[in-house]
């Protein structure tokens, strides 16, 4: 009896797999290369365009968010930043190149990519929409003053390792005693300006805001909200996180494996005098308020 039913069962499974591939394409967008079916498992893994993208902000906690989402069994992430939409040389190579940078996934899995450089690049939103107008976007923000110092600290670290000269933060940030609006790292913290470009092409509901400061203090609630936004069943649990006192941050636990983010995440920040920090906080008051109005919520930033 079972033997006579087997061929019909196999055909049914194959049909089901093909159907979910089609549905996935409809949700994730873009045409697909030929699918290779494995006769043993009836699974079809292949590289797919992302259904969700973490667009920024730089130094906001983008790596932590990506790694934490990756705990979910229905999520696969691109291991490195792809910089497809913001680097012309990459963009010129087209969607086939972009897809080739993605992990292999099952039809039921969601591919997620993160490139923080997307957020502040004005040409990117329309390009992302052209790829897939239904793509889900995640934006992780953090106190803009802290973000700026973190940004400077990263650049400083890179220059020191390459034995290049560097300027103290105070020198870059102040001009004749006032905050210099021309400083690049300061501009990257003007979230309302960059978000305005995204809201020209995407509805607000399509952009989920993650609180980067809350993610540092207590990651689980932020992950629960992200799961909900991504329409994933709740599979990330409190047991996936533990506070590592040596690192001073939460680390991840999954299937008996323990993972902390590398030493480039959570470096001690470069010093800045209390007086300049106050000037910086004052400078950000107005732009922050504009950002809060745009997103319909506020944050307890300095
Ligand atoms: P700092 O290095 O300034 O502390 P990104 O991945 O976007 O570059 O962000 C880096 C920031 O992620 C770090 O900034 C750190 O504060 C933050 N972060 C959030 N959760 C973290 C975690 N669990 N482990 C390490 N860093 C984390």
The strands making up the biggest β-sheet line up spatially as 3-5-2-6-9
Beta percentage is 5-15%
Please, what is the CATH homologous superfamily of the largest domain?
Answer: P-loop containing nucleotide triphosphate hydrolases
Task: Look at the structure and give the CATH class of the largest domain.
Answer: Alpha Beta
Give the radius of gyration. 22 Å
Biggest sheet overview: 5 strands, parallel
Report how far the terminal alpha carbons are from each other: 72 Å
Give the helix level as a range of percent.
40-55%
The CATH architecture of the largest domain would be: 3-Layer(aba) Sandwich
Query: Bound compounds, please?
Result: adenosine-3'-5'-diphosphate
- Low-pLDDT runs: 1-42
What order do the SSEs take from the amino end to the carboxyl end, as H and E?
HEEHEHHEEHEHHEEHHEHHEEEH
- Number of contiguous helices: 12
Using the alpha-carbon principal axes, give the shape.
globular
Global structural class: alpha/beta
- How many strands? 12
Arithmetic mean of pLDDT: 89
What is the secondary structure topology, with strand pairs?
Elements: H1 2-28, E1 46-47, E2 52-56, H2 62-69, E3 75-77, H3 88-91, H4 94-100, E4 104-105, E5 110-114, H5 124-131, E6 136-141, H6 144-161, H7 169-173, E7 174-175, E8 178-179, H8 184-187, H9 191-201, E9 207-211, H10 212-217, H11 219-229, E10 241-244, E11 249-254, E12 257-259, H12 274-295
Parallel strand pairs: 2-5, 2-6, 3-5, 6-9
Antiparallel strand pairs: 1-4, 7-8, 10-11, 11-12
Helix pairs in contact: 5-9, 9-12
